[in-house]
């Protein structure tokens, strides 16, 4: 928007007519690599040359038409890269710095950000639900050679030299989101935690529960490969919902119900199973993206008298969150690299979406290299 005013501010930028390759959403199942205009940094922005990104379950919702974005949008929201341009007013960084940017890019200054709800960032004023999710939602995203980072001062997190791109890329979204399921659920030392669905986010919620001090972690899924990796990521028990009664099995393993149930899929069935697996006084920590109506059966909810808490969380973003997560990797508390099961070039993006979407070949997350 403010590009014209900043041409002078970003001296070393290539010619204005430069283009780049990017994955552009055009409509339901219509997307792919196009040559588009390269972004430039306006005041407060940065442009990052993307060296590694990935595909999120939310991107699948977008290309399937289940989550609306405007046709013409470059999608993707998990960038690792190198600073290529710095806009006016961004200090403490230089061109060439390696950075990680969270999927959520809060402004850091609005009422929501200052009240500690940065993911609900209100664009300089008030609050806006999901307002902090900009890249690949309301502005161009990261499945591209370059991406413009808004509010760069609040969002560029320098990557420690000893960490590779692969070690940090999953922190941008799934780790931040998954861990927050355990954090928002208030997991305490000695708690029992059940995590419903062991996709990428659920696996990170399993890791998060362990980091928070849970004594017993139960992972639930219906995919053999995912149940296997759940154990590797910290689940003490796994439940296959295809053959087992989830709530009954959780109650048996926990002696009456889990202290915290983390919902990591976004369906009526998983939400309801979370409620049924909780002990009275327990917390349902919800990460899933729902559509349509969500119902709370009175029996599972103790008719509203069970002292249950239901909390929801959108991926925490911003540079301080990313710094903290990178410290966890540097300190070897967390290693997410086993979750990157496949690697593609940006030009193979449709192939990557097909594999990820069909959950073929034991895929958990794919690396995309522009
Ligand atoms: Zn995502
Ligand atoms: Zn804000």
Give the helix/strand layout:
Elements: H1 3-6, E1 19-27, E2 30-37, E3 46-54, H2 57-63, E4 73-74, E5 80-86, E6 98-100, H3 111-114, E7 146-149, H4 152-155, E8 157-158, H5 165-168, H6 174-184, E9 192-196, H7 200-211, E10 216-221, H8 224-232, E11 237-240, H9 246-254, E12 258-263, H10 268-277, E13 278-286, E14 309-312, H11 319-330, E15 340-345, H12 349-358, E16 365-369
Parallel strand pairs: 9-10, 9-12, 10-11, 12-13, 13-14, 15-16
Antiparallel strand pairs: 1-2, 1-4, 3-5, 3-7, 3-16, 5-6, 6-8
The protein binds zinc ion (2 copies).
The site of one zinc ion has 5 residues, from loops.
Describe the structure.
By secondary structure, this protein is of the alpha/beta class. The chain has 12 helices and 16 strands. Strands 3, 5, 6, 7, 8, 15 and 16 form a 7-stranded mixed β-sheet that branches. It has a 6-stranded parallel β-sheet with strand order 11-10-9-12-13-14, with helices on both faces. Strand 12, helix 10 (268-277) and strand 13 form a beta-alpha-beta unit. Helix 6 packs across helix 7 (200-211) and helix 9 packs parallel to helix 10 (268-277). The longest helix is centred in the middle third of the chain and has 12 residues, at 200-211. The protein is globular and about 65 Å long. The structure holds zinc ion (ZN) (2 copies). The site of one zinc ion has 5 residues, from loops.
């Amino acid at each position: 928007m403010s590009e014209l005013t900043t041409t002078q501010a970003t001296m070393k930028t290539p010619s204005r007519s430069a283009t780049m390759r990017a994955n552009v959403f055009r409509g339901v199942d219509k997307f792919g690599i196009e040559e588009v205009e390269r972004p430039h940094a306006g005041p407060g922005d940065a442009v990052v040359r993307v060296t590694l990104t990935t595909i999120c379950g939310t991107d699948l919702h977008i290309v399937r038409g289940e989550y609306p974005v405007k046709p013409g949008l470059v999608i993707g929201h998990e960038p690792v890269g190198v600073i290529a341009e710095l806009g006016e007013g961004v200090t403490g960084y230089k061109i060439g710095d390696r950075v990680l940017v969270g999927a959520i890019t809060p402004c850091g200054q609005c009422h929501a950000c200052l009240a500690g709800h940065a993911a609900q960032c209100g664009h300089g004023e008030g609050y806006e639900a999901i307002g902090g999710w900009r890249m690949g939602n309301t502005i161009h995203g990261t499945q591209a050679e370059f991406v413009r980072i808004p509010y760069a001062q609040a969002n560029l997190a320098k990557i420690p030299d000893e960490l590779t791109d692969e070690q940090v890329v999953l922190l941008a979204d799934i780790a931040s989101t998954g861990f927050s399921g355990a954090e928002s659920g208030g997991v305490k030392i000695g708690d029992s935690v059940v995590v419903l669905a062991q996709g990428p986010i659920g696996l990170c919620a399993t890791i998060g529960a362990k980091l928070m001090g849970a004594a017993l972690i139960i992972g639930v899924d219906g995919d053999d490969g995912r149940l296997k990796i759940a154990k590797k990521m910290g689940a003490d028990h796994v439940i296959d919902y295809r053959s087992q009664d989830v709530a009954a099995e959780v109650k048996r393993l926990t002696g009456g119900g889990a202290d915290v149930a983390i919902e990591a899929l976004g369906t009526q069935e998983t939400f309801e199973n979370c409620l049924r697996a909780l002990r009275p006084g327990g917390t349902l920590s919800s990460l899933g993206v729902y559509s349509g109506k969500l119902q709370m059966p009175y029996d599972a909810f103790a008719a509203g008298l069970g002292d249950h808490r239901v909390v929801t969380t959108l991926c925490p973003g911003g540079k301080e969150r990313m710094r903290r997560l990178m410290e966890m990797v540097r300190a070897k508390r967390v290693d997410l690299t086993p979750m990157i099961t496949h690697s593609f070039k940006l030009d193979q993006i449709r192939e990557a979406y097909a594999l990820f979407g069909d959950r073929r070949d034991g895929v958990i997350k794919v690396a995309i290299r522009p």
